[in-house]
Design brief:
The chain has one domain. 76% of the residues lie in helices and 0% in strands. It is built from 10 helices and no strands.
Length: 197
Amino acid sequence: MSIKIILSVLVGGIVGFFFSNDSILSNIDYIIDIGLCILLFFVGIDIGRNNNVLKNIKNMGFGILLVPIMIIIGSILGSILGGLIFKMPLNESGAVGAGLGWYTLSSIMLTDYSSELSALAFISNVVREVIGLLTIPFIAKYIGDIESIAPAGATAMDTSLPVISKSNKPEIAIISFITGVILSTAVPILVPIMIKL
């Protein structure tokens, strides 16, 4: 699976570099949305095929909320640690981590504060998504199902969901979706809080 992802990104980069077509580029968001909806549709079919999924989720109870909480804590603490290494102010490095992988929103929210920090948030969160897509299958196989949700961050409910679903049991896809919704809701709250510290 990870080889297919790497090849897809490489081929896409080559095509984008050598064959930039204005009609495709102007509609790229629309094309991505269609592709993502098709992927999520098939993830939904896979979840629906398993009758025990909702029962297993119900048995987990409120423990399911620990997944997004720990991802938030790990993301912000990790970015603050990275900020200390690169001698960044703690509030700035924390705000970048508070983007939780949602690169478009976090970078827009930081534009008024600093265009450099906005660019850093964008790049950091894009890299997080790419690394997540590449590492999720390995984490699911060698570390654990729930742990494989963490690298995706806020994208656990959309772009990373097909990879998480393919790499894990069906109930993990539902936990991933719930986690992604909670993280996506947290980003517009956490980024301003972190930057104002």
